[in-house]
């Protein structure tokens, strides 16, 4: 069995891709150390990840993690939310299938297609606000566009009142920040469970034409989602529906502005926007290392043996840049690349239900942004953009730009 020293994952996310190169030197699966000295593994090889993501020996159920079951993982562990939330991401088999069937009713092709006018309206409103920025003034595109767009879309879909949105979204924002203290981690679990529990109760009292009301009313064989499942599902949907799309938009904009020749290809119609979205998803997966899976037995994989019950992350940011699949130029942004294969929405039973919605949001938002502001430029080189303080997500902390002249309204 191959033995290597574990890589302590950088809680500040200083350089996700450099860290992945170090991990890859161990092979397609690498030993890591999580916050608090907790041992684990991450899978960063594409072919191996496809196998792991469909292998039932890698379960999502934290009851298969002896360290957690035995009380060795404290309730204020910085990553505890990824263990205690009760939703599709912590279930397998029949329980997962039941939850997924109920929740998938909120993401049918018809429902997703029907969101186009909502996405277009929110996009136009945000671009109108940006148009009021004085010429030459530096503006953070992440804060003013890439974040509020998907956050507004997902909150509108789930019927979160405007006055409650900051509280409803805050838990997911904190949850992805691996640099938080134990005190912040414990407080965050309490905060999101309370805020989303209040949303569930409000929809029970006064149902609306929204997806939270759909979930509250959803039943299978007479069985409804429990309060814990409802709250956990809302936590998942609101967090994933805002944070991941935000990073997708940020990376696509930064990559295009850093490669003007490729931006010209898409603006002149030589390459379509779908290719931009897929290349961004491949080379800059919005998620860096997704927690958790747990081995139900000793599993020999990728030249190592992962002991029974060890936590395993899936390193999507490394998977998309796997040179074994995409060659020595895997790290380069190239919208003309013939093979843009990626796993950024997952694979197998846990494939992301929101993938069609995320793609639709990006396909609407990106061309609208560049049409409205053809003179948009980065206000700082991409090498000067600070990262999010996390090894879970992959995105910049801010995207400072100048907007230049305005195009069509």
UniProtKB/TrEMBL annotation:
Stated family: Belongs to the cytochrome P450 family.
Gene Ontology terms for molecular function: heme binding; iron ion binding; monooxygenase activity; oxidoreductase activity, acting on paired donors, with incorporation or reduction of molecular oxygen
SUPFAM superfamilies named in the record: Cytochrome P450
Pfam families, per database record: p450
Highest taxon of source: Bacteria
Record-linked CDD domains: CYP107-like
Keywords, comma-separated and alphabetical: Heme, Iron, Metal-binding, Monooxygenase, Oxidoreductase
InterPro entries in UniProt: Cyt_P450, Cyt_P450_B, Cyt_P450_CS, Cyt_P450_sf
Protein name: Cytochrome P450
Annotated transmembrane regions: none
